[in-house]
Specification:
binds manganese (II) ion, four-stranded antiparallel sheet, alpha+beta, 12 helices
């Protein structure tokens, strides 16, 4: 890497932008909630688009709302490189998940521009639609469609809690009116994709290391379970007659924990993160329950064995409790391997910048999981306080963010020069 990528990051401007974006939320500060296509999400998109235009980037938006902000190349015939992340946020989230990769990615590009660097290849900043699964139950909606991991006709059938379809939401949100098949990109369309993100785990902070370089992303799966029993009066329906959907669900949530811990591997994790019941009245037996279950492992066979154990437990519990069930696998993705050459490039940028770095796996999923289907990919992690994420007290310091952006800028500069 040559000296010219030792760019100056405008940390003050970046912090102001992170703060301004955090203000755009469905709930008051410090909580950040920006569910896909909510009013807050739409305002946040507008805010980011304006920043990209101000930076002189050319904007394109696809039919599902993925946003591409391009710094054009000296040589437009070469495949561009790309960086980016997401700005949607789960309910009760913080201000850094995804945002550091979007606003930090933008600042990396601006810093390279200010340095006088002219890219041989174009550089795209991608703001992915719905990395978070909140509205449709499936994460990385935008990057799944870009990579072909999700078929457009399946995506078109997605419905949210109120049964509003993705197509209806796209129209409401003013996405490009084209069909969803137009979203897909060809393999090799990018030379490389590098995503900057907070670690969402404790290792970097614990070890006092400012930069993580991701070598592998764990394999996530999501199950959706509808349970249907029989409701009735809480006083009048005697216990032997009950077909309580909540109790079946409660046993299933415990069975998930059992299945996950039975692997004996600390890398296997499972969460019943959604559990809703109907009718939700204190004097009424729950007749219906809706559960969403997240299972992950670094090893796909281990994760899949847990999924099978959960399926068996669901069948056994529901039969015994005389509750009907419908279990759907929303996604069961393979892990993604990062590109060794790219990992080495990031490592040499860190060396040049004299920033200690460690190689690591990502236990959270990211759009990078799907970008890996299109081109070589890796991620740059920065520490976050206590490893806390998906909570309002999520925090990375301005210095930690600045270091991550310096590494990203150095990496993009190196890749865009070749
Ligand atoms: C991403 O937000 C994840 O749940 O890993
Ligand atoms: Mn997240
Ligand atoms: Mn994220």
């Amino acid at each position: 890497m040559s000296e010219r990528f030792q760019v100056e990051i405008d940390s003050a401007a970046l912090q102001r932008e992170i703060e301004a974006l955090a203000e755009i939320s469905e709930q008051p500060a410090p909580v950040v909630t920006r569910v896909l296509f909510s009013e807050a999400d739409l305002r946040a998109r507008k805010f980011v688009k304006q920043l990209c235009s101000d930076a002189g980037l050319a904007l394109r938006e696809d039919a599902v709302g993925n946003l591409f902000a391009r710094w054009p190349a000296k040589n437009p015939s070469l495949p561009p490189i790309a960086t980016g992340s997401h700005i949607d946020a789960i309910p009760n989230a913080g201000r850094y998940d995804g945002v550091v990769g979007v606003l930090g990615g933008l600042e990396a590009i601006r810093a390279l521009k200010r340095s006088g660097f002219e890219p041989t290849r174009a550089v795209d900043l991608i703001v992915f639609t719905a990395e978070e699964p909140t509205r449709f139950g499936i994460g990385c909606l935008g990057s799944r469609l870009l990579s072909g991991a999700l078929a457009p006709d399946k995506a078109a059938g997605l419905r949210d809690r109120e049964s509003v379809t993705l197509d209806q939401w796209r129209a409401r949100a003013g996405c490009a009116p084209a069909a969803l098949d137009s979203v897909r990109l060809a393999r090799g369309c990018y030379r490389a994709f590098v995503e900057l993100h907070i670690e969402q785990g404790p290792l970097l902070e614990r070890e006092g290391i400012p930069i993580g370089i991701v070598e592998k992303i764990a394999a996530p799966a999501t199950l959706r379970l509808e349970l249907s029993g029989e409701g009735g009066h809480a006083g009048a329906v005697l216990m032997p007659a009950r077909r309580d959907a909540l109790l079946a669900g409660a046993e299933i949530a415990l069975a998930v924990e059992r299945a996950v811990t039975s692997t004996g591997s600390a890398d296997t994790v499972g969460t019943t993160g959604v559990f809703r019941i109907e009718p939700g009245a204190v004097n009424s037996v729950p007749c219906r329950a809706h559960l969403e279950i997240d299972v992950r492992d670094t090893l796909q066979p281990m994760r899949d064995a847990v999924l099978r154990q959960i399926e068996q437990a669901v069948a056994e519990i529901c039969r015994r409790r005389r509750v009907e069930w419908n279990l759907e696998t929303l996604n069961a993705d393979p892990p993604a391997q990062c590109d060794t050459e790219l990992v080495n490039t990031v490592a040499s940028v860190c060396e040049q910048l004299q920033l200690p770095a460690r190689r690591m796996i990502s236990r959270a999923y990211h759009d990078s999981l799907f970008m890996a289907l299109l081109c070589p990919m890796t991620m740059i992690f920065i520490p976050c306080r206590g490893g806390v994420s998906h909570r309002p007290d999520e925090y990375s310091s301005p210095e930690q963010i600045r270091d991550g952006v310096r590494v990203l800028a150095g990496t993009l500069g190196t890749l865009a020069a070749r």
